[in-house]
Design brief:
- This protein has a single domain, classed as Arp2/3 complex 21 kDa subunit ARPC3, CATH 1.10.1760.
- It is 78% helix and 0% strand.
- The chain is built from 6 helices and no strands.
- The longest helix is centred in the C-terminal third of the chain and has 33 residues.
- The termini are close together.
Length: 165
């Protein structure tokens, strides 16, 4: 049984690599309304909805760090917050709620909206980017929606992998 767990985590790691390339490479992923999704956020949240706390924490940290790197900054904001969010998601679903597509999607909608919204407030609004409100309307709202929409297929793939291995 341990070997099957290894294959599951290996497939997760392959998905991290593929989605990082899709997220970080210009013109590889289609833009909708001028923005691309942050694909590693829904991947980490999907893994956290089916795995235990420690694997969730690790995948949250890796996906967060890679998202920080892809966004052009140093490792920090997404790495720390996504690690905590994934750990608490694994804890909540193992202790209080049944993990299914509906509950995982509700958690993902709130988490993605808060993460991207907080990123905007801290790194665009407070830092004094001119016309930040226009940037939010033209770029960040579509990024939030696009990222949330990508959660459903990624969650289905992760649940399939989790059930197979």
């Amino acid at each position: 049984m341990r070997n099957l767990g290894f294959f599951r985590y290996f497939v997760y790691a392959l998905l991290v690599a593929v989605l990082y390339v899709l997220q970080a490479t210009p013109k590889l992923m289609p833009e909708i309304l001028g923005s691309k999704p942050l694909l590693l956020l829904p991947l980490a949240l999907s893994v956290a909805s089916v795995e235990d706390k420690i694997p969730s924490l690790i995948f949250g940290a890796v996906c967060g760090a890679l998202t920080d790197i892809a966004s052009g900054g140093g490792v920090g904001f997404f790495a720390v917050l996504l690690t905590l969010i994934c750990y608490f998601e694994a804890h909540i679903f193992s202790t209080y709620f049944v993990s299914n597509i509906i509950s995982a999607s509700a958690y993902a909608v709130v988490s993605i909206t808060v993460l991207i919204g907080l990123y905007f407030v801290l790194f665009r609004l407070i830092s004094g980017v001119p016309d930040a409100h226009i940037l939010f309307v033209n770029h960040y709202i579509s990024r939030i929606i696009y990222t949330i929409v990508m959660f459903i297929p990624l969650c289905a793939v992760i649940r399939f992998i989790h059930n197979c291995f």
